[in-house]
Design goal:
Helix content of chain A: 10-25%
Oligomer: homotetramer
Number of domains of chain A: 2
Distance between the termini of chain A: 34 Å
Radius of gyration of chain A: 23 Å
CATH superfamily of the largest domain in chain A: Jelly Rolls
Number of helices of chain A: 7
Order of helices and strands of chain A: HEHEHEEEEEEEEEHEHEEHEEEEEEEEHE
Shape of chain A: globular
Chain lengths: ~350, ~350, ~350, ~350
């Protein structure tokens, strides 16, 4: 799409008009339509892979050099999409960072309207305290801190721990909709139970406490434990083996983390899923409005991002910008965590998905 | 409220008018307003208790005398509310029956638009096959057969088994909205797995299969297992002990069985809950629009129904008609299953609850 | 469907079993399955037509003989479906009555949880006062009194007036969910404006007052005026003439009265529609779960009800029981008002519609 | 909020760490937390007023110099918020432009997923053709072009016409979610009816065509006519005069344009309202998450934006960035059109409103 040619560009009256526009804080559509309204999404964000083998040592170095405490709040190192000019955004809407907490360290409490989660690719020994409820963090767990809940973290071991933080910071920042408040310097409950109170109340399949009948915009489950995720995926593949419909496509099991009060997404701006491909499986190629960040949890395989194929293995992260082609395949099988901004587009009626035919 | 006195009752013109009304299939409001529109619900259904010690032997005698098979379909013995003139209804909306299946018997498959569930107060060894998915029945389990799913039952043991069937038959019958279809003479899948396929796909806390993202009006979970219900209740009481909000009122834990795709009731016309009162606990006294049927699952205690108190223990059933006062108390603690027609009134915007003050 | 033959009926043990069942308020399913759960709805209610030429004189006679006032409350004469044994119900769920108010009479205020509306087939000069808002009643108007709003009527003319009252009394009575309260002996606001306050606030197409942003279960519009209904129907037929989709089927225009806060039905239990068939048009034949009552507003035509065809003209009323076949046809064109219990079945997920093919 | 001091800034190891972060497309949170997550929204966009007396002559000059046609598509001159560095955005989410169409000109058809509307502050004689439905544009009308509807405009007079275009271009562009497609060079239906087909089908208060029972994410009403808006506002003030609740606050009438199929906003990303303040009235001071653009339609008054008060009169536009204080007051009374991104924040559960107390 090219802009219309508005008469002769040399016309000095036109130059003067554009100058007068600028002086009055006005800006013509016709010279820039193609950029403003492209025929399909043309993101500046690019597909990119970050290697765990690179990330983790850098996080450790930060652990040695940068204290955690009030003001900086978190030792979190954000994925900065190479197409976005250095801002700490994985995509225009999504924040993804590695947070690193050294032995016995405490990240002070605060709260913000931005929705946050954590996903643990390795390690354990940190508790995140969400509105006073201590939540253990262990490999494979997916943990929620929905907007405006006070939260801090403390490491109860002599080893450091690192995990993935995901938030909607870029979207909230762009739309000027965020609020932030400092809380306690120390966590408000230093207990270290294996299971949080929120799980004890809410993480029973299909059961809702009568004391919690009001629907909530975000899930009341603070921790989705690996044992459940793993079992759900294992059963899907077993059902497929037995000849019953259960998987997304052959060899591809997947679950969406959901809010038990509504069946919807865990948080109003963030979707989170876990995918398992059995050895030899491949997904169809998709394009979707909206972006997502993936982390390989286990195994290894290949991801096609736009026109490039990357081999990825445990801990590696990659971002899929809006409308970029993507597919997965694996010889040995692999497990992947994914989060995205899909609820935003579904709620705003802007969602589109395109699945290439003639594959699988 | 008394009807207006329409002039002098002896007026022969009035008699003739009423006769002419009748001849034309007309009927005046003013002579019967109080019955049609009482100041508060005035159900014909009455509170009543049925004893397990009476029910079970009668069911066993039916087992000896009445075959199960095509036509009669089920050896189900319904609670007939004494106020309703002999119809097999626990209340105007609810059907509750004891179904009895002898050793090695099979109840043939059929389907109907009426929503059904089963709750098991004792025994095991029967599988209910719901749309081809074999679902084991064991003590404490709550099992769904939402409308229009083919289902049959088969007893794989040398012992009989009995359980509670609950349906919306009376409401559907009254409103002329039911459909029924015969199916296979034998169950379509005679396998006897411990866990149904529906559970393998759906009964993981807060996890939704990506192959099942469309919401369904009724829950896709065929069996809510006792181990989960028991754990949820136990945790509520433990949280209460630790000083955290979790129970409905002191000493009263309760869960609602829910549809994981929506967070709502398991079926569009039926609510199901499980209540546990610890030793020494009592509930507040309530009145609610709509009726419910309770079965004591374990322990014993006292139920106040209207103006009468009854001692009830394991297996006993009682019905609470609309707007009847009810409360529970127990010295030794007890567990109760409950089902009701509450979704009907909530969906039709006719729900009201009155909780008496100054108690508990 | 026939009940299973439970052994030999003469078996005295069986007789004793059934007697013991009865003594314990129990009732077997197997002897009555076909009645309880027929293969398709088998209503006791029958199709029936009531003639305006019969109804109106009877109402006038009631006007001469029966006073209106506290206690009887309303001079309303209900359609009593011939299949329902004399109860004043048009169907198991719907109440339809002709209400007659003599010159200068007042029907006192009261309120009830039952939802009510009025539809005016002829006349004017009565105001219904709904929660203090005086609402003029004129030919073709559809007027709402949703549950728990105080309301009374007063005739400001020297002529009587009669209209159709529709309510959900039978459903509410059956389900024991109704509440009733007496109010003022006289209407609380005797003003006689042409337009109610509710219309002034709410009856502007697609416009919602900022002072009324909370959704309400029932429509806030007290009167749907004939001029709007007529215009909407006229435009549908004109659009059809111009070749654009607008009608339900050829020559059949129809509108549903809706709640502007949700787009849904005007009241939670009642659907109301207005249908216009142009000269020579006919509808397809339908069966629907749920019942409806129709009143011819203008013109004349033929209605097929089950296996019988009736000629109907202005003022005539007919009832269509659940799952009964119905269709309309007309040589000269006619207008019909309809109300039904459809929202009940849609909300309870029990709705079914069957449209016969190969017609129209 | 200030960033934590990470050791000594001079530490060369830290410099190297930050350089290594940058090389790996990583970016620390702790050095920029305050900017990313401020305590309350801190928009770059600023409050600003654009004068109609300046805008219109510039639009006319563009009319003389810049052709309308394929490629440039529209002669639209966008408000460029002075805080946003020259991009043609009124706020980060909202596009607002003056579109100018000369005598007999045609703006060719296209469609895009971005939602669009037009509001007419003066003039008439242009038809916008939306999916083949010709919609007349007249002073005071609010006209919709929801996403993915083909639309073009043609001026049937010998005078130019200008109006306000509003879209969600900035939000869609930022989130990479837009699609665009060229259509016909000429409008597909050149008819010039006073009323569009969409209005004939849908713009009847509380009436829904039976041929349109499926809810739509955007309103099916193509034009909300001034006569209805004006009447609704006039009635609110009259009801206030009569002592009844109807206005937002004393002397402040307002309507929200709504989707009759849901009662919700006209489009999934855009809210539109019309406000009328009677002479002497003032609003309370508000802060809201999200931004809005206002245009004075008639009269004159004063707007407080942040700390500055501006006198505004017919045609003037102003933007209120997120969380900026705003209030209105007027001596002589004025009418204002408003549009905003509020549905975005409500749907994403990020909405907040703060109303200052002790005023009004």
């Amino acid at each position: 799409m090219t802009a219309t040619d508005p008469g002769t560009e040399q016309d000095p009256r036109l130059d003067r008009l554009y100058a007068d526009f600028a002086a009055e804080h006005l800006n013509p559509l016709w010279t820039q339509l193609g950029d403003l309204m492209p025929e399909r999404p043309a993101p500046r964000a690019v597909p990119h892979v970050w290697r765990w083998s690179t990330l983790y040592p850098l996080a450790r170095r930060a652990g040695d050099l940068v204290p955690v405490g009030r003001g900086g709040e978190r030792r979190a190192i954000a994925l900065a999409n190479p197409g976005l000019g250095g801002v700490p955004y994985a995509s225009p809407t999504l924040w993804a960072a590695i947070q690193y907490l050294g032995p016995r360290e405490v990240a002070p409490e605060h709260r913000h309207s931005q929705n946050a989660f954590r996903f643990v690719v390795e390690g354990e020994g940190v508790w995140t305290v969400v509105n006073g409820d201590p939540v253990a963090m262990r490999r494979g767990d997916f943990l929620l801190t929905p907007g405006w809940n006070f939260h801090g973290h403390h490491n109860e071991t002599d080893s450091p721990m690192a995990w993935l933080d995901g938030l909607d910071i870029p979207l909230v920042n762009y739309t000027d909709s965020g609020f932030f408040e400092f809380g306690s310097e120390q966590v408000t409950d230093a207990a270290t139970p294996r299971v949080s109170r929120s799980e004890r109340l809410w993480a029973h399949p299909g059961l809702r406490p009568l004391s919690g009948l009001d629907d909530t915009p975000n899930s009341p489950i603070a921790a989705y434990r690996w044992e459940h995720t793993d079992a759900a995926l294992r059963e899907q593949l077993a059902l497929e083996d037995e000849g019953h419909p259960a998987t997304v496509e052959p060899g591809h099991a997947a679950v969406r983390y959901s809010n038990p009060t509504t069946g919807g997404d865990v948080m109003s701006t963030v979707r989170a899923e876990f995918h398992r491909l059995r050895a030899g499986a491949r997904t169809r190629t998709r394009r979707e409005v909206g972006s997502s960040v993936w982390q390989v949890f286990d195994g290894e395989g290949e991801v096609e991002l736009g026109d490039v194929r990357y081999r990825v293995s445990t801990g590696d992260l990659f971002v899929v910008p809006s409308w970029a082609r993507w597919s997965l395949r694996t010889d040995r099988g692999f497990d992947l965590f994914r989060f995205s901004d899909q609820p935003v587009f579904e709620r705003l009626n802007q969602s589109r998905v395109f699945i290439e035919e003639g594959q699988a």
